[in-house]
Design goal:
The protein is α+β, with helices and mostly antiparallel strands and 237 residues long. The protein is built from 7 helices and 7 strands, in the order αααβββαββββααα. The protein has helices spanning 2-44, 47-63, 71-76, 140-147, 203-210, 216-220, 231-236; strands at 79-105, 108-109, 113-137, 151-153, 160-162, 179-187, 198-201. Strands 1, 2, 3, 4, 5, 6 and 7 form a 7-stranded mixed beta sheet that branches. A hairpin with a 2-residue loop joins strand 1 (79-105) and strand 2 (108-109). The protein is globular. The N and C termini lie far apart (76 Å). The model is unreliable at 24-41 (pLDDT under 50).
Length: 237
Amino acid sequence: MRSLANSFAHTSVQRRKSERSCTMMKKLFAILAIVPLALASVRAATEQAIVDHSASIIREFRALPEHQIPRSVLRHARGLAVMSVVKAGFIFSAKGGHGVVVARTGHGWSGPSFVGTGGAGWGLQIGAEMTDFVIVLNNWDAVRAFSRGGNVTIGADVSAAAGPVGRAAEADVTPTAAIYTYSRSKGLFAGISLEGAVIGTRKEANARYYGRVVGASDILHGRVAPPAGAGRLRSAL
């Protein structure tokens, strides 16, 4: 009897192991399918879709009840970068993202200058995640970093800190870093840190959106008129 009971117990353990293995394999295949689809969606978005999505992100961040960006932070901002970043992988990972940068000018907010980020990594990571970022440019040095038309490395070219949140932070208007970062994630990764991230100007996207070759500096300093399609974004600011 004892031998029969042990046999049943062994069979039950083996069955549970097999079920766990099957479940893990299903998750793996699902994630491997998500990786190229998620990164492809980042590459395929049109410039106008990126501008409209950036406007939606701004409105959503301003509406968060307990974690909203304080109005005082936005009121004193010299510029904003708004981005969506997809990170996906199994052991090896890849990420890609796009968005826009805008700056205050003597005539209100500038038109959008398009930016992007990407990279690859390795480690004990599994899953897929979409993260929306709002990066508050607190001073003109931060705006100039994004005006050069090249790459900006967060934490090296500009100092970064997590931004204050909620109504309790309204009185704290003295920036502690060149940029404040805000993020909201959905997915299986714990989150994406912008420290060390390289954000580059997308010159071809700027040329397509404005109908001619224009520099990031001209856009962000208001020397290029914002297209009509940027109206929704500018009103959200």
